[in-house]
Every structure is written in structure tokens, then in C-alpha cells.
Amino acid sequence: MDKETLRYLNGESNVLEGHLKLTRDIAPNGMEYIRICLTDVDDEKELYTYWRNPQADKKNKENPKHTGGKKPYLMLMTEEVTKLRKKKVQNVPELVGSLVCLGENIEWNTGRLIHKRSKKSLQYKDLLEIYGCSRPKLNKMLGLMKSHELLYHTNDGYFISPKLIKKGRMKEDNRDV
Fold first, then answer.
1. How far apart are CA 98 and CA 141, in angstroms?
2. What is the fold of 65-166?
């Protein structure tokens, strides 16, 4: 690679001339206006122009915004699982596991069960579809979760109790049961 091409690519020069002419004009907001021209002896023909944001190139677009670049996570309160076992609750692993499976549907900071894309509250039929089980099985699981305060339902939808699972900065569950 010749020195002039290297200087242009490093941003040290704003013009690269040859059979093609590349120019870069920098706007006050940092955006770059790039022109590609075909040069002839006495004529210059503009082939292509575009705006480019050099700051956008530095951002990693694959990182989720809500976790600050880290992989999505949720916190499981192990003491609550131990308390459930001490109360002799049946099927604790199944109950906790079924709640953890809803992790990607838990809204950050609130614990509400939502659709990932539309952010609308999950309905009973959505839970049936997610779990892929029969109505009696889902009714039994929901009943157990509600009776042990792992899940509750309001007019706004289903909520996971922050006593067991937290996602983001959820406040403790202070509602009266």
C-alpha cells in the first residue's frame, strides 16, 4: 500500500488522488461526507457520495442496551428456594425451573411477564404456548406458584415475585396477599 493511501485511511489526509479521487469533508457534528470521483485529464465525474458517522463504527451493535453490554441475566434468590424446601413444598425444582424458563419474558425492573418484542403482558394462552403443557397441568403449576407467592396476577398481568427471581433493580414485593 502506498503512503498516500495509508495517510487517507488513517485520517491524516482528506484527499486521495489517482484514477479515482476520494475526498472526505468533516462536518461540525463529526459526520463525514465522502465523495468518490472518476478523474480524467480535464474532467472529473462524480460516481458516488454518502454521509458516514465514524462514531457509529466504534459501537458494538450486538450488545443489548439494557445490560450495559453484558449478556442478559436474572438473579435467583437461593434462600427462598431453601425456605420452600423447608416448608415441604412439593415439586420445588419444577416450580423454580418453570419460573426460570420465563426469564426472557420478565420485564426489567418490574418483574412483569411480557412478550419480548411488543412488551405487552403475557396472557394465560401465551403461558400455555410457552410451556407446551395441558391446561390442567398449567392450572396446577400456576395455583402452586400463586399459593407460595412466587407469581401473582393483577389487572396489569402476571408478575414474578422478586423474593425468588430478580431482573434488574426490582423493589421487594410489598403487596398484601
1. 9
2. Arc Repressor Mutant, subunit A (1.10.10)
Query: What pLDDT digit, counting tens, does each position of 107-121 carry?
Result: 888 889 999 888 899
pLDDT digits (tens, 9 = 90+) for 56-89: 766 555 544 556 667 778 889 999 999 999 998 8
Task: Give span(s): CATH 1.10.10, the chain.
Answer: 65-166
| 23 has pLDDT over 70 | yes
Q: How many CA atoms lie within 13 A of 63 on its CB side?
A: 9
CB neighbours of 84 closer than 8 A, spacing ≥ 6?
92, 95, 96, 148
